[in-house]
Amino acid sequence: MTHTAVVGLAVGRGTGEEVAAVFRRVLDRLAQLHGRRVRIERSPRTYHSYVSLRREGGGVERMRELTRRDAAHYEDFCRRLAAAGTRAVFRTAINAQSLYLVRQRLSAVKVDMLRAGDATLLLVRDEAQGFYTGENEHGPGVLHRTTTFSRDTTDAIIAFALDRARALWPDGPVERITLAYKYHLLDGALEDWAAEASARHGVPVELFQPDTVNRNLIAHGLPARGVIVAGNEWADIMHVVLLDRFGAGRQENHFTENAHLHPDVAGLVEYQTVHGSADDIEGTGTVNPVATIRAAAAIAERHAGCAGAARAVEEALDLLAGRGVGTPDLGGRHSTTEMVDALLDALRPHPVPGPATPRDPAAPVPGR
Fold this sequence. Notes:
Blueprint: E1 4-12, H1 16-33, E2 37-47, H2 50-56, H3 59-83, E3 88-91, H4 96-105, E4 108-116, E5 119-126, E6 135-139, E7 142-146, H5 151-168, E8 177-180, H6 189-201, E9 205-208, H7 210-220, E10 226-231, H8 232-245, E11 255-260, E12 269-273, H9 290-303, H10 309-323, H11 336-346
Parallel strand pairs: 1-2, 1-3, 3-12, 5-10, 8-9, 8-10
Antiparallel strand pairs: 4-5, 4-11, 6-7, 11-12
Helix pairs in contact: 1-9, 1-11, 3-4, 5-6, 9-10, 10-11
């Protein structure tokens, strides 16, 4: 009897429903082509985008309350998935404030693997602490935001980055880990924690200001095997630049994964498109489906036993590009549905030696 893989699905406002429909169609088709069975478990709540919160009105307090509700519900959904043994969830864009409350509570990191020729960069974004996390307190004309940094969280993130790097490069030692944080604001604590982590793990952990990391990348080029652990204050802004420098394309075509380090949800990986909720094009049928297509392929290959799914999708996307099939932002004249229809028609199983088994989550998906 064929094993049924379970994949979580969380949908936000804006173009979330359109993106979710693309995800379902591509995942179902890949499973069918590989003779696999996949069941999607969708969260019963449709989460707010920032724009939908503002549109709903009610002022700051109402927005804060809905933000807390969304965060509490999504956190509970992730915990229930993990408890049931589910290892993958695809999420469309939701309000960042709700999302980062969950990431703080579940100690999340965002992982991206970027390659250009012989250069490789493993970027691990610290989503569990720093300015992006924390709570707001409002006064008359004043907003106070309280954030927290933790030695234990910092060390857990460094340990995760080191483990992931060793899985990616098993043929040699990890030479160093670069930390990109605005550490001058933290009274020397982060510098001490980095030194302790370096001694504990036996790997140089070098702490730099974000602008210094930028200067080094400009002066010395891309590393052969680089590992950067970065606060979101730097990594969120720099991601689009790094995609460009590594020839990985635009954000709209890219997906990333978020790993949770909290023991209650360890092993649950959240996949997301890099683009946002795109509320301004909701209902127009023009949302770019490429990032969602790639995320579906990654989940199919890594978690549903569809070996070769990622390569098959890349070949189909190349075929579509050669035919000029694309949404308006890609220079085409096709709707989202038309582009997905064409992709599903072009999909063919990619031959892979040996039995189809779930792919190691540490392995990167081939990019464009």
